[in-house]
Amino acid sequence: MNVWLQITDTAGALLVFIGAAICLLGVVGMLKLPDVLSRSHAATKPQTLGLLLVLAGVALRLRSGMDLATLALIGFFQLMTGPVAAHLVARSAYRTGQIERGELLFDDLDAQLTQPGPEPDEDDEGHPKGPT
Hints:
- This protein has 132 residues and is mainly alpha-helical.
- Helix content is 72%, strand content 0%.
- The longest helix is centred in the middle third of the chain and has 31 residues, at 65-95.
- The radius of gyration is 23 Å and the shape is elongated.
């Protein structure tokens, strides 16, 4: 067996192991952390990093063009959907009152939700709608 293939196989196995350990830490965080925002953080950041490490380890083992393209697509869609899903969960928890607003350091969403919008018969700039 070629020495370089053995090195890449060993590195791939190490990356898969490290990625799985990071995913396990994310799961422990989801079970142990007290509130929705902390759990959302534990559900996305370690899981995304862990999955990317697992994909890198599998890519070192497979070494086929089609397999690498598939793994790249999996990583791309994980990077695009994970943070968006966590943001939507956190925002819905905020809107339904499941978050202690007094514990937040910054609360930019409160100003957006309490700011009055334009009147129904006015456009965004405050001008009356309709023919002039």
